[in-house]
Amino acid sequence: MEQHRTRPQQHGPRRGTPPPPLPPQGGRGGAARSARPSGPAPSSRPVGVGAPARGPAQRRPAAVRRPAPPVVQAVRRLPNPRLTGLGGGLFCGAVMFLLGCLDQLLFGGALTMYCVLFLPVSALTAVWVRKGDLLTAPVVVPIAFAVGLLPVAEGGGIGSRLMGLITGLATQAGWLYGGTLVAGLISTVRRVRLVNQRRRLRGVPIAR
Fold first, then answer.
1. Where is pLDDT greater, at 130 or 204?
2. Which of 35-39, 71-75, 78-82 has the highest mean pLDDT?
C-alpha cells in the first residue's frame, strides 16, 4: 500500500505577503510608557505633618494711612525755601524791620506785639535755612531782633533812639532769649535728623 505523505501545515506567513502592522506603542518601550501615569510624578520627599499646604500667596491688606492733623497739613502747604546763612540773616532782619514799622504805625510801638511776632519769624528762619548753615540760625535771630527794634524804640534823635534800643533789649530780654531758644531747638533737631540719616545711608547702627 502506498503511504501518502502528509505535508505539515505552515502556520507562518506565506512568502511574498507583508507582515502585519505593529499596534501603536508596541513593544516593551510602549508598554512601559503606557503604564506610566500621565500626571506629574509624585514627590518622594516626605511631607511634614505640621507643614502648611502651599497655596496661592495671601496678600495682606494695605495699611490705611490716617490723614494728618489740619495743623500739619497747613504747615506742609507753606513754601519751603532753602536759605543760606547770609540769606537767613537778611530774611529775618528784613521781616523784623517791616514788622517793627507796622507795629509803630498800627499799635504805636507796642513792644509786646513786636516780641510776639518775633517768635514765628525765628522759627521760620530756623526751618528755612539750609542744612549746611543750621548753626547760623541762632546767631542771626538776636541781630534781627535788634534791627527790628529800631523803629519801635522811643526817642527823636539818634542818641535817644539808641538809648531806647538798649532799654528795649534790656526789658524784653525774655522774648529775645525765647526766640533764640526756639531757633536753637529747631536747628538742633534738624541737625540730629541729618546725622541719623547719613548714618543710615552708611549702614552705621544708631546708638539709642
1. 130
2. 78-82
Q: Which helix (H) or strand (E) holds 44?
A: none
Q: Give yes or no for a contact between 200 and 139, defined as CB atoms under 8 angstroms apart.
A: no
Q: Are 99 and 148 in contact (CB under 8 A)?
A: yes
Q: At what angle do helices 137-148 and 158-171 cross, to 10 degrees?
A: 130
Residue at 182 is within a domain:
yes
Kindly write down the DSSP assignment for every residue of 90-103, as one continuous string.
HHHHHHHHHHHHHH
φ/ψ (deg, to 5) at 140: -80, -20
Distance CA 6, CA 116 (A): 140
- Provide the number of structural domains found in the chain: 1
What is the average pLDDT score of the chain? 76
How far apart are alpha carbons 115 and 176 in whole angstroms?
8
Widest CA span of the chain, in angstroms?
176
- Where in the sequence is the domain holding 118, given as residue range(s)? 87-201
